[in-house]
TrEMBL record:
InterPro entries: PNMA, PNMA_C, Znf_CCHC, Znf_CCHC_sf. Residues 1-34, 210-231, 246-269 are annotated as: Disordered. It comes from Xenopus tropicalis. The keyword Protein transport does not apply. Keywords: Metal-binding, Zinc, Zinc-finger. It comes from the Eukaryota. GO terms for molecular function: nucleic acid binding; zinc ion binding. This is CCHC-type domain-containing protein. Residues 7-26 have a biased composition (Basic and acidic residues).
Amino acid sequence: LQSSLGEEARGRRQKAPELQKLHVGSERGAAQGERLKIFSGMEPTPPGEETFEAWRDAALVAITDWPGSGPALCRKIQESLRGPALDLIKLHREVCPQDGPEKLIEVLEDTYGPVEDEIEMLYKFQSCMQKEKENLSEYLKRLQQMLKLLVCRRIIATDRVDSMRLQQLFRGALSMDPTAVMLRSFYRGKKEPTYQELIREIRKEEVNVLRREKKSRGSERTSSDSQKAEEIAELKKQVAQLKARVSEKEEGSTMSRPSSFPKAGGARGDPPKCFRCGRLGHISPHCPTQRENAAATEVISYGCAVRKPPQKRYRKRRNQVRCYTCGWYGHTSHTCDWGRNEDFTDVYVTSFPCEVDICEEKSCGTRMVSERKPS
């Protein structure tokens, strides 16, 4: 048994280097076999292909990961192209065979990339601000995408990327963002961090801020709950005191209340009383004596006593109108025939009836004596 076990161990040791070589070879083959997605440069984008921005980002990452020299990388880039883009790269490689893969991507960027001025792209980057309720990490990702375009267009140098990123991050972040406040104090006077270092610090601080907010919310809830409980207890005490006072007042009023009360005059069962004549059965607006015994003033005019009609608020009728020229009722002085007669110069009334009853509208007999003027 010992001899057989020793032979198996020796066989495993001999096979181990071969397995390692096979594993490394398979990894290299897989890395070399990775290909970019297809890009043809046709508009609209055919199904199964990617836009130029997505293809360019994948190609820039693949150039740094793929092993091999420049011609091999150029060949792999050319294999992922179709249609007009492939014809463009073939012609460029024939004219400039010494160019590397970065130059090929730059040619495609100039041909199929977004048409924007360098000044406009730089202004768009500098005017990028953090939005409301946006995390600082998301804002940093947007800045990184813009910086990548600026580097691809050769607008800024690669050694200025870190400084411009940090400067724009502090400029465009919200003034009350707790993560940005911490970063300003942390990186003051220090070297500009890379993207990985910066995003790592930002995410850590965002987690700490969330924890502090949760703790503060929990403490506020407990304090508010205790305060509400105290207020409720105080209100209950006040309600109990008010109830006790009300019950005491009710008991005192029942003890001092007499057994019977005298009936006040003018109850519901009694008839109404008139305050003008003092009789029962009617009220003063409907009093009949008001019409019968109305106050009248005796006016003596030309030896005749005339009873004045009671003053009423409504307008008089035609037969109740009095003429101040002849003293008759039924017309006015403007329509009086006696005043229009020019033959009589001195007219006077010798006798009038002692009274004129307006309600019965009796005719008033008069005897008139006239004297002519001497001619």
